[in-house]
Specification:
11 strands, 60s Ribosomal Protein L30, Chain: A, about 30% helix, Phosphoribosyl-aminoimidazole Synthetase, Chain A, domain 2, 2 domains, globular
Amino acid sequence: MSDLPAEFALIARHFRPLAGPGALDLRDDAALLAPPPGRELVLTVDAMVAGVHFLPDDPPDLVGRKLLRVNLSDLAAKGAVPLGYLMTVSTPKATPESWYAAFAAGLAADQVQYGITLLGGDTTSTPGPISLSLTAIGHVAPGTAVHRFGAQAGDGIWVTGTIGDGALGLAVATGRLADPSGYLLERYRLPQPRVGLAICGVASAGMDVSDGLVQDLGHICRASGLGATIEAARVPLSDAARAAGPDWLKTCLAGGDDYELLLAVPPAHEAALQRAASAAGMAVTRIGSFHQGEPLVMVRDASGEPLALERGGWSHF
Amino acid sequence: MSDLPAEFALIARHFRPLAGPGALDLRDDAALLAPPPGRELVLTVDAMVAGVHFLPDDPPDLVGRKLLRVNLSDLAAKGAVPLGYLMTVSTPKATPESWYAAFAAGLAADQVQYGITLLGGDTTSTPGPISLSLTAIGHVAPGTAVHRFGAQAGDGIWVTGTIGDGALGLAVATGRLADPSGYLLERYRLPQPRVGLAICGVASAGMDVSDGLVQDLGHICRASGLGATIEAARVPLSDAARAAGPDWLKTCLAGGDDYELLLAVPPAHEAALQRAASAAGMAVTRIGSFHQGEPLVMVRDASGEPLALERGGWSHF
């Protein structure tokens, strides 16, 4: 094998160990997947480019895990069970072998955590920055996937975990905020996709929060033809986010990179949601409700007054 | 919609018209796919980078079609029926809107030709060259997909269509060869994946020829644990390739970008292969055979002597 082209050797050393059944050891041009009988597949893809979605000197293991986790977060928002993934990796010729080793080690750790394997991929060179893409595949019972549309007036607005840590972590990474515990930076670099929260048949609509709570809530409002009101004081913040102080509240509400789930839940399903969250070991918090009206998002402060956000406030999107 | 971010407007104008059922109009973060009952899925992914896999000033419609077709060729080599695809498009901010329009128009034309639709995608910016990835999904009867392994001693070596046009087309594109008819350049820029050739249960092994006939035959030899001998005079050439003259024969045998199928076919299945080819309107030609021995590829010239190839000749790979 020693006289194989360098690309094949790279695949053999770093990516073949990630391959699961059906991937044919990455020796073939295509993978096989026997879909679970009677299930519907859920497919999602994201690209990440160095200098745009991550910093060129970010730890490669965290780059790999974030690439995988942002896609797992999309699957989680549909209520899907992850099955596996395909990936492309385009790297400059000068990329050291240690980069691939660390990148693959990060993926290997997450494969164990989420019970998935690599199905196939493509490695190429590029004269530009590292460019990555990942297609994740999951499954749901037919007809039960959660969509952005489907929220009803009177549904509560719920979120998992805490909001704003990712945006504050970016502020830490760029030197604008102190982070004594390191918690915020960790939350920015390593999202915790809410895989395993059983939302099918419970949430009437939902998505993951990647572009900021208020903007993403606007997507559900538009898709569902409803208005929404949230109470800023109810939005769950981590201890580290609270410690940053009230000046950072708007960053929490309008920032991004949360990878928490944002759900519309009818009052009759609230107990079911709380049981599902308890079973998955996750926190869920009701932060507001949907109502008839223009697809606007209103954020109220503690005194009930509208809170104006510089970005993603209570206006048309 | 006019105050949506530019990315959403771009998706709405150029990519939403490509979306099929299950793609949720590309308004969601994930797509749904109900796999055909009782079928196995075949998945393949390829990345293409400007300056590596295509030239920055190549016509964008042909770039889109080539991106799709190289993946359809991988599906064809497994004997799979194409279902749909997901795609990522990372472009410099200065990319004119006309580029996306032409790129999408090429994809639209091929979607009609191959009966598939876009299931999902992601568009991002990049500070580097245009970077594309495409994940194609097809299906086969369980257990019938064709692999690189599985060839048996005595199997004939068969190819579809003609070999070498892609490599000669690249020579035309780079000014090293004349192409009065334009045929070779067209073959390089717009592969014709052999979708629809019913090879399941007929071929014992196979792959598509993308890295050159001799090198790719070496892959089947290694995967199947066999040697192979091909007769150069039997390798089917197009009229345009013959017109280039005998000096270009080695380029045809060792070049790439053919996207023809290379198949191992037991003698008992030769009639079935020819019926399948006739039904699909494709030519198939027997160019040699597999035999017990080291995984070497021997190319014989018209007088039976070994033909030495500068690249990808009869040596270990």
